[in-house]
User: Fold Rab11 family-interacting protein 4A from Schistocephalus solidus.
Amino acid sequence: MQLDTETLQEVFNALDTEHKGHITVEQFTTALEQFYSSLIPNADENPTLNRKHSLNVKNIVNVLDPEKDGIISFEDFKSAFQDYFSSKDTEKPERKNMTLKLMGRSVSINPDDYVLNQSEGENDLRTEDSGFLETGGPEPSLVSPEFSSDIAMRNEGRRAWPILRRSGGGSFHSPHEGPGSPYSGSRSDLLMDDVDSNFESIRDQMRRMEERVASMSANQLSNQDSVSPGLREQNTRLNATIAILEERLKEAESRYERDLESEKTHMESLMARAKRAYEQEVEALRSRLHKVESDLTENSIALSKAKIELENSRVSQQKASESLNDAQDKISQLQEQLQSRSSSESVELQKVIKERDQALRTLKEVNKAADLRQSSISHSSLDAVSRVAELQQIINRLKTENRDLTIKLQDAQEEMLARSYEDVKVFLTKTDNAYGIEIDKMTKEEIVDLWTQEKFGNMQLRAYLDRILEKVVTHNPELLEHA
Assistant:
């Protein structure tokens, strides 16, 4: 049988009185308890049945609220009902016994004891050694024929009661979940074929059971002596089972609390570790930031100093360039003066050379005249002697003049070199410090250029002096001999 969404929506809306789109577990359990109370007016007189109803409520809540958040959404409500009605086998529930350790004994508990569907002659608790809690009901020989009919009616009522069925479609999420557990079940255990027909069937069954209970109460007075031992044994068995289940519940709760506490401790340790790592990383980043800021400040100061030094070097370079230009101008002037003096001295030297040549020619003429007059020596020896004396005086005078001119030339050259040396020395004295500072600040390429220029100037000066010496050697070698 299938339930459509509209029917389930109407039921859900009836439970959702505040129109929030969801219902709470408290609302659902209240409505379900009101339904059970309407079926059993005197629920306080039958605590066992009331306890079984509370177990059914817990199982239903576990199915409807699988997330354990106290909120039942329409999807969970819908899936719970549709899973039950879509199950294939709802007529033959799977039943398994649950084995427990009680007082050193293995006790087998049948789940039919907790769903009100135990058949006749079926033991509630069995042990492996047939000792403690072996039987589940009164012996047939101890039950009267009248009470046997009551037992049959009771078992029929149990079979008619809606049992908690177990199918492969799902299971309750209970702390005591397990094979054969009285809390085990599935969503298909919640309802019968139809909600309305199920409720009506339950009401009819409850009325029939009340009538049977009344008749059983009347028969119980007459058969109390034979029935009371079995009831006591059953009561003892049920109390032992309840104690076992309560103990298991306490153990599960304590285990859950321990797991929760350990998980909480683990998470707190993880949080503390993450917090420490975060703080260490923040501290490392902060120290790194301070270091970067200090480096940036130092680099800014160094950059400012470098800019100032660069500006100063540019100014110094400009001054050095100006000083160098002035020095080059002065050197050019000195070179011009040297050239002018050299030219004037060359002119004087040419004059001296011409006079020497003239004197030589005169000497040759005198010699020729002397040769011509050798024939006439006899005419006047006195005139010849006087003529030779005059020639000798002329020659001595020319040699003296040549010597004086050579000395004057040397003095002029020495004076020119001394003046040039003094001028250069004064200029270098004035610009010595500036040139030293400029040379310290100059680059290698600039120093090489200046050295090349100075070398070129020295080569030109040497070439000029060589030309002067060549001219002296060519035109007046006697000057070198006298020197």
Strands lie at 22-24, 71-73, 98-102, 105-109, 125-127. DSSP finds eleven helices and five strands in the chain. Residues 442-482 form one domain.
